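Q: What structure does this chain adopt?
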Amino acid sequence: MALYARKEAYIQQPAVPQNPTREPAKKRNLITKGEKFLYLSFVAVFVLCAVLVLQNQSVIQASSQEIQTIEHSIDEKVKQNTDLSVQVSELSRYDRIWAKAKESGLKPNERNVKVVPGQ
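A:
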């Protein structure tokens, strides 16, 4: 019996024949059409948001530059107004007005002087 068992051990089992006519397995798409649509729509929305952010930044930059230009012109006008106020105060001094009146041949007349209240 032991001899018979040994013979059986050496007998090769018939190999399972592989099916040569069998076609190779098709690759299955890992990403479905719905997922592709979702990914593409997400990318489109992301790009749209990025473009909107850049557009808003350019509008903000243009507005900021315009504000700076206006502030600069305001500063120049304030400086001009200050200079003109100084000129007015210098030109309206009493002794200067009196000298111009004498040059023009005017003489003081006490009867023609009118006092304006509050000044």
